[in-house]
Amino acid sequence: MTEAGSGLRTRLAAHGPRAFRFALVGIANTAIDMALFAALFYWVGWGLLPAHIAAFLVAATNSYLMNKAWTFADGTRGRAAWIKGIRYVAVATVGLGLSSLTIWLAAFVVPVMVAKVLAIVASFAWNYAASATLVFRGGAGSR
After folding, report:
1. Which domain holds residue 47?
2. Which residues of 27-52 are buried (b: 16+ CB within 10 A; e: fewer)?
């Protein structure tokens, strides 16, 4: 194996456990998002967009806290933590847009549930890469 190939393989292997933790946090927050949306929309009677936005904000906030504490083991406090939180919401918002665009486009050519899976994969890839490089870079869990 070439030296460059070996280095890449080492870097990818280092991300494995962290990417797995990120996926577990994502699964938990997807459940929170969907449950809160359903409760607000169906039981409380909120409109589609207000229920969607409220559920997204709660899930994104929880996701930031869980990823900060567990996935990336980031001990940042105070103002720096707030800045990272704002970056995380920006990253999650782009991920929401990416997944919405993906499911909308993919649903024209594949079944809706396949489109949903593609949207999840697209947003996971973006959210993990952006979180690792733009939000939590250099934390204890980044190795």
Report:
1. 3-142
2. eebeebbeebbeebbeeeebeeeebb
Distance in angstroms (rounded) separating the CA atoms of residues 139 and 141:
5
Instruction: Report the C-alpha gap between 42 and 17 in whole angstroms.
Output: 37
User: What is the number of domains present in the chain?
Assistant: 1
Do 52 and 74 touch, CB atoms closer than 8 A?
no
Distance of CA 95 to the CA centre of its chain: 7
Which amino acid is present at 16?
G
**Closest CA relative to residue 127, chosen from 73, 60, 57:** 60
For the full predicted model, state whether its pTM sits above 0.85: no
d(CA 33, CA 28): 9
Q: What is the pLDDT along the chain (143 residues), one digit of tens a residue?
A: 555 556 656 655 667 788 889 889 989 988 898 888 889 988 999 988 888 888 888 888 898 889 888 887 777 888 888 888 888 889 988 988 888 888 888 888 988 777 887 887 888 888 888 988 888 875 544 44
